[in-house]
Amino acid sequence: MNRLRTAVIGVGYLGKFHADKYAACANAELVAVVDADAARVAEVAGPLSARPLGDYRELAGQVDAVSIVVPTRAHFEVAEFFLSRGVHVLLEKPMTATLDEARALNLLAREKGLVLQVGHLERFNPVYAALRSNFSRPRFIEASRIGPFKARGTDVSIILDLMIHDLDIILSLVKSPVSEVRATGAPVYSDRVDIANARLAFENGCVANVTASRISLKSERRMRIYQEDSYLNVDFQDRRIVTFRKGEGEQMPGVPNLAKEEQTFAQSDPLLSEVTAFLDAVQSGKPPLVSGEDGQLALEVALMIEEAVNKG
Questions:
Q1: Which of 128, 190, 272, 308 has a Cα at 20 to 30 A from 28?
Q2: SS3 category, 160
Q3: CA angle, 161 then 165 then 166, to 5°
Q4: What percent of the chain has pLDDT over 90?
């Protein structure tokens, strides 16, 4: 097996974990880690036997694939540098700061025949795969993703930081254009929106009510899906799906019995699965599970919600 030469650009909280995963993959060689913080990059590089660098441009011609885990405002600049030089890119979410930047990266990746994967990590939660197999003609979706305040991630709003996870999931399942967006939100602890609620109407008739907050006392990642023949209660955090379907017989005249099914999933490593899938897409030539187009669509809807919040 040919090992891919890899690097991680940005080794803050999340980037450090990206570096760990590449170092653990048999089909990858972690060539370098890059960060403007000299002490941090040396700390991460040492145990992984990788080169510590302060400037990603030093990697030109030395890597086959990279993870980009820098602040969102720098996503386009760094990704464009590597894509234009024939390097495959795993780009953290949100994909870019603007929709034009996302379009430009997707165009460049297509022209160069490169893998551009976006880091919507929840797609690699085992709950997501099970959810897809139980999903059919949803009428209403309610999603809630809340947690305590943390300083990291506040370079963007809660919509681009947390809500975008659920937007990506919903868009990948509903597979219908958004016809209407209504939203409200407010900054509380930061100068960005820290809590938001959005109502999305889709052309196929489905409606989604999505809430995200980083000012809550507890953490929760839940989704409730109402379909014509079933109700699904999904917990991405505890890795559980409870499904209620119409059963045989009636519990009273005109009211059918309900059959309950509960699925639980073992602890997994979604980030390792994400990095492994990226490397496999590079080596096989198959499309990535979360493409640049997927990232662009989630960003487009997130920015629509931000616009609606700002108008409100």
A1: 128
A2: helix
A3: 125
A4: 83
- Is residue 1 scored above 70 in pLDDT? no
Cβ-in-10-Å burial (0-12, 13-18, 19+) of 159 comes to buried
Are 65 and 87 in contact, with CB atoms under 8 Å apart? yes
What average pLDDT does range 200-205 have in this prediction? 97
State the sign of the Cα–Cα–Cα–Cα dihedral 125, 168, 96, 60. Answer: positive
pLDDT at 114 over 60: yes
- For strand 195-202 and strand 207-213, is the pairing parallel, antiparallel, or unpaired? antiparallel
pLDDT of residue 251: 77
- Count the Cβ atoms, other than its own, within 10 Å of residue 97: 19
Contact between residue 235 and residue 127 where contact means Cβ atoms under 8 Å apart: yes
Average pLDDT score over residue span 142-148: 95
With a CB cutoff of 8 Å and minimum separation 6, the contacts of 165 are 93, 120, 121, 122, 145, 221
| CA distances for 230 relative to 227, 242, 243, angstroms | 5, 10, 7
What pLDDT was estimated at residue 20?
98
Residue with tokens 């509960």: 262
